[in-house]
Amino acid sequence: MKIAALISGGVDSAVAVHRLVEEGHDVHLFYIRIGMDGDGGDCSAEEDLEMCSLIARRYGLPLEEIDLHRQYWDNVMAYTLDEVRKGLTPNPDVMCNRMVKFGFFEQMRGHEFDLTATGHYATTVEKDGKKWLATGLDPVKDQTDFLSRITYDQLKHIIFPIGHMPKSDVREIASGLKLPNALRHDSQGICFLGKINYNDFLEQHLGSTPGDIVEVETGKILGKHRGYWFHTIGQRKGLRLGGGPWFVIDKNVDQNIVYVSRGYDTPLQFSRQITLSSMHFISGNPWDEKLQEEGIDITFKNRHMPSFLHGHIRQLPDDPDRYIIDSAEQIQGVAPGQFVTLYDKESHLCYGSGIIWKGKNA
Fold this sequence. Notes:
The chain is of the alpha/beta class.
């Protein structure tokens, strides 16, 4: 097959390329540049490109750089800043996969190939005549939550050569082959920021405006913050308050107030019920009318983590854009704007995701 392989300079995509070559495919390498010129970020692009070039030369493959930084700014960074302004908690990596890696790249070059391959830790399954997204073998590295907003047409054109492997095997293969990035550290944080601190990025674009930190139970002003956009529900670090631990419980965007509560076991930081909106099913709704009737048991994740939460989801008959998850366990720090990824309760097929509208301790 003729395959476009997205390569980042990291070990995961390098081993994915190795496996494709080993299987005899006609592989073309692509590096997507998304950082803004002169912003100090760009994910250390020059170092990444050097690694990509070494991998290309190692296997005798063509390497092409695709500049998508303007598309990234208009669709991912703009989304991130807009959500933060609203007091919400965005996930730019989720939107990058849908809009950039499997969106604009596919429109520009990916459609010319039989398939597009990436180093994501995910798998796919053929079932009922459709292709379904499924979890990777390594529960710690599984990245289906970051892929939960891709479309079915995008999924049909993707393969994940290392999704069935644990990270330890990927490292072992890279070391055995003496790949130049075998020992390179995994990237951390939001890709477009590179070495820029996230709060510095927010201050650069949104500025800072002092506001009150208020104890939610008493209304007592405990201190000052630099702007509600620097804080998210469930946050503990960065409040600089004594006598803690303190957790962010709520925010008043209009009045620039951050509400906090003290103690690891404060009930105000936990939710048993989550209301979702903007539901997206990748390969179609697997439950059909059951969601509007009795609902269905699922597993889910409200952030990137190795374990699954258990719950029951139902669609509101009088508001079909709203879905309710009743969780079997208390969930800490449910933040509006976050994505909740939905999985089959047994097979852990990833069906898609919804966006948190609110959480409450039902």
